[in-house]
């Protein structure tokens, strides 16, 4: 990000400290709702929700900055990057815990199902009678395919969230890559909706996801509308 070096050196560590504190407070607030799950599974779900919330925040900072003083832009862009890094880290930890749970004990609990899948490949494939594999096209499988695509995209964004990566890729390529963030957010949204509504059940509900998604969409639509109106007025105004 051009100009990121202009922000004070102490500011970014302070942001990380505040973000970590906020994440811990969010986890503490959710912990009572997850008491009936094993600890590792509870943390996997809480980290997934934290990642979702942080990714949502990155998508509103850009639109919001156009309504704020221009001198704030450099700080907001740096903050967006740091929130994105924290969100990517939470999502990565979520996936790591899920894989560990599918490879060992305790395994993940599915509402309304007594059958446990063996191994992490069970997230994506069924065993066939001849010993082969076929794609798992159940709602569990579809949700997991969406999650897998999203985490691969998030890994790409996570790995390139630095000035060095931006210089290596070039500004245009770097920007095009990070423009996929809204698409990844939608994948995570549908992944989460399928899990909380059809697979996991409580403690999360679809409302926990939809309100955040609706807020992001409304803010981005409002920002886009504002930009279009400003450009139209500028074109109509006399030189």
Describe the structure.
By secondary structure, the protein is an all-alpha fold. The protein has one domain (4-234). It is built from 8 helices and 2 strands; from the N terminus they run αααββααααα. The protein has helices at 11-31, 39-65, 73-103, 139-159, 163-169, 171-178, 181-199, 206-236, and strands at 125-127, 133-135. The protein has a two-stranded antiparallel sheet with strand order 1-2. The longest helix is centred in the middle third of the chain and has 31 residues, at 73-103. The protein starts with 10 loop residues before the first helix and ends with a helix. The relative contact order is 0.12. Mean pLDDT is 80; it is low at 1-5 and 111-117.
Please render the helix and strand layout as text.
Layout lengths: L10 H21 L7 H27 L7 H31 L21 E3 L5 E3 L3 H21 L3 H7 L1 H8 L2 H19 L6 H31 L3
Antiparallel strand pairs: 1-2
Summarize the structure.
The protein has one domain (4-234).
What attributes does this structure have?
239 residues, disordered N terminus, mainly alpha, two-stranded antiparallel sheet, 69% helix, 8 helices, globular, 2 strands
Number of helices: 8
Could you estimate the helical fraction of the residues in percent?
A: 55-70%
| Run of helices and strands | HHHEEHHHHH
List low-pLDDT spans: 1-5, 111-117
Strand content: under 5%
Class per helix and strand makeup? mainly alpha
Overall form: globular
Number of domains: 1
Number of strands: 2
Q: Cα-atom Rg, whole angstroms?
A: 20 Å
Order of strands, main sheet, comes to 1-2
Mean pLDDT: 80
Largest sheet: 2 strands, antiparallel
Distance between the termini: 33 Å
């Amino acid at each position: 990000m051009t100009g990121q070096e202009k922000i004070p050196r102490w500011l970014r560590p302070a942001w990380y400290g505040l973000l970590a504190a906020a994440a811990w407070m969010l986890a503490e607030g959710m912990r009572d709702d997850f008491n009936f799950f094993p600890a590792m599974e509870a943390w996997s779900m809480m980290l997934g929700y934290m990642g979702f919330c942080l990714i949502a925040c990155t998508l509103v900072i850009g639109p919001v900055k156009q309504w704020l003083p221009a001198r704030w832009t450099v700080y907001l862009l740096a903050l967006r990057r740091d929130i994105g890094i924290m969100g990517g880290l939470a999502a990565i930890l979520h996936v790591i815990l899920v894989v560990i749970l599918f490879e060992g004990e305790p395994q993940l609990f599915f509402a309304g199902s007594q059958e446990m899948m063996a191994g992490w490949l069970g997230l994506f494939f069924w065993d066939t009678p001849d010993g082969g594999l076929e794609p798992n096209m159940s709602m569990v499988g579809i949700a997991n395919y969406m999650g897998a695509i999203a985490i691969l995209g998030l890994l790409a964004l996570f790995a390139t969230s630095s000035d060095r990566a931006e210089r290596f890729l070039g500004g245009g390529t770097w920007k095009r890559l990070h423009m996929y963030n809204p698409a990844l957010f939608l994948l995570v949204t549908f992944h989460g909706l399928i899990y909380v509504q059809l697979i996991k059940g409580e403690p999360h509900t679809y409302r926990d996801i939809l309100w955040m998604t609706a807020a992001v969409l409304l803010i981005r639509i409002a920002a886009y509308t504002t930009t279009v109106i400003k450009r139209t007025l500028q074109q109509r105004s006399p030189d």
